[in-house]
Amino acid sequence: MKFIHVSIITIGDELLIGQVTDTNSAWMAQALNQAGIAVSRRVAVGDDRESILKAVDEEMAAADIVLVTGGLGPTADDITKPLLCEYFGGRLVLDEGVLTHVKYLFDNVYRRPMSARNETQALVPDTCTVLHNAEGTAPGMWFEKNGRILVSMPGVPFEMKALMRTTVIPRLRERYMLPAIAHRTLLTAGIGESDLADRIQLFETALPAHIKLAYLPHYGMVRLRLSASGFDEAALAAEMDQQFAALQQQVADVLVTTRDESMQEAVARLLLEQNASMGTAESCTGGYIAHLITSMPGSSRYYKGSVVSYANEVKTGLLQVSPETLRLYGAVSEETVRQMAQGVLDHLHTDYALATSGIMGPDGGTPEKPVGTVWIAAGSRAGISTIRLKLRFDRARNIELAAFNALNFLRKCISEQSFSPTANSRA
Prior knowledge:
The chain is α/β, with parallel strands linked by helices. It folds into 3 domains: 5-175, 3-Layer(aba) Sandwich (Molybdenum Cofactor Biosythetic Enzyme, Chain A), CATH 3.40.980; 180-257, Alpha-Beta Plaits (2-Layer Sandwich), CATH 3.30.70.2860; 263-416, Maf protein. 41% of the residues lie in helices and 25% in strands. The protein is built from 16 helices and 17 strands. It has helices spanning 13-16, 24-34, 49-62, 80-87, 96-110, 116-119, 157-175, 193-199, 201-205, 233-250, 263-274, 288-294, 312-318, 323-329, 334-347, 395-416; strands at residues 5-11, 38-45, 65-69, 92-94, 123-125, 129-131, 140-145, 148-153, 180-189, 212-218, 221-230, 255-257, 278-282, 303-308, 352-358, 373-380, 383-390. The strands form 4 sheets. It has a 6-stranded mixed beta sheet with strand order 2-1-3-8-7-6, sandwiched between helices. Strands 14-13-15-16-17 form a 5-stranded mixed beta sheet, sandwiched between helices. A 4-stranded antiparallel beta sheet has the order 10-11-9-12, with helices on both faces. Helix 11 runs parallel beside helix 16. Residues 419-427 have low confidence and may be disordered.
């Protein structure tokens, strides 16, 4: 059976100058992958006729399906529709269904008069199948030529996503016999990408040709992903499970999670399993850890709050860090973060606490405590552990690395400590 290949073309000058980040193609690739459709290429072009024509021509020659987003608005720089009309040898005609929908949106949703410019949204090539865009005025368009398919969709993300979910992917499923695509992902921490590659070299070399291993480094962690596709879904799943188990054995000492989840999600899962709560005291990370945690839906079930104790008077006043500790050891010290964590346990009434204090740069370091020095404390009433980091990057990356390392340190503490719910636990 044939594997189907897709190319994605995103259109817009704003993408090329960095004014807007291309999130459309990433989302589309994920959605297609889940449906068993491999994305072979992603191309971004500006609002330029020759560039768009060249991209369409090249991708139509290389892929079974070409998905295009952008350039379908009512303004002069939106040239995708007339260009595709010409490419597929048609002419623009008025689609009454689209016109009725556009009028409905202006009368009932936008509640403003519809201009003649907006009426042009109802003009479509007579060589396409119109795809209803319930979320906006620009319809999707489905073209076929020489056994290949091109689908043009609006560049507005929520409009494109709705069309993909409700129409494009279901139509592709009807048209093609799609393979199963399987992924197995784990997350490691505390080992660099090159060292990890050396460690699992024999495993990677022995993988069957249809199973690929990807390295995805991110802030001191490396995600390893096994990917494969095939038409026998059960056999593929069994083979992937076997290979994934072997990979886990190779990295057991640096393994964070065997799920495709972030560090904060791994911590959240452990807390929810224990029906336990946590809080944070952040100095050098400035609330970034709290941001990572609260960016996840449902975090109120286990996260009570944070004290961003940037100034020493906040450390002493709210977290009850001893002034004598600060005088003898300084704010960036093992003794201080230990007391900060204890302050979280005592005053936020949590089961677990996480505290950070450090020097993020570019200045503020000393010979004894250079820029990049970070102390982390994590634990519960059963015991608080500490660790020191020596980071070497710019301020922004030092903050991010400190936050992810802190969460990983807390994860280890939660996993290793024998915990039973106390009066502080969530009911």
